[in-house]
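Let us work through a complete example step by step.
Step 1: write down the sequence.
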Amino acid sequence: MDRSDLYDQMAARKAKPRDLEPYDGNNGRVNRCADLMRTGKIRTGGDLLDVGGAIGDLGYAVRDLFDERWVVDIAEKNRSAAVAKGNLFQRRDVDQEGLGFKENSFDTVVALDFIEHIVDPENFARECHRVLKPGGEVFVNTPNIRFWRHIEQLWKAGRFPHTSGDREVYHGGHLAFYTYSDLREIFEPAGFESAEQLKDDQGFSSPPNWCFESLRPKTQQEFVALSLELGCPNLLYKAVVRK
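Step 2: predict the structure and record it as tokens.
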């Protein structure tokens, strides 16, 4: 069984009749990204590529903000639902086949809870850079393994934190775990400028004092940056193609 067959099976097990209907707002990561787009924190306009976009909920949620919305996903079984929501769809195994579009094809690329599932994130970053237009943006949402509650669980309970609610496979099929610095080290060599780590307002939890006692930030700026890195359960990372 190859990877696409496995993901087709997983998609089939999770499929629901409502998947073919308009998006009903029940996906936190989609809502988070759509809110960031509507408040101007992620670029809109032109064409959007949603990598690992599954049944196309994001494309439907922001259909008024882009001219075309493409979904790339490894599971062919997600095609009908994604297309029913007005997206264009391409089935690809990004690790083996790349993104498959021409250079300078998109204005915005998003990958929501995707990068932790692939083997070669550095090649994925290069592919994002290749298909984006000058000044285009990539936005990555992935669990933050440096979230203070994860650290506390590993330290106190001796258990590696589960960063996925998907129980279909162990750890939700996550192959790697990232911090903000990891993402910068992946995307900047591919030609991106790291714009910022956006705050996860939906899940932010202020780090307790013991975090700062051990790390000892020297300035208020360092304190704020550390609070963001330790307090967000999700990394919301945006990077821009140099013009």
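Step 3: interpret the result. The chain has a mean pLDDT of 89.
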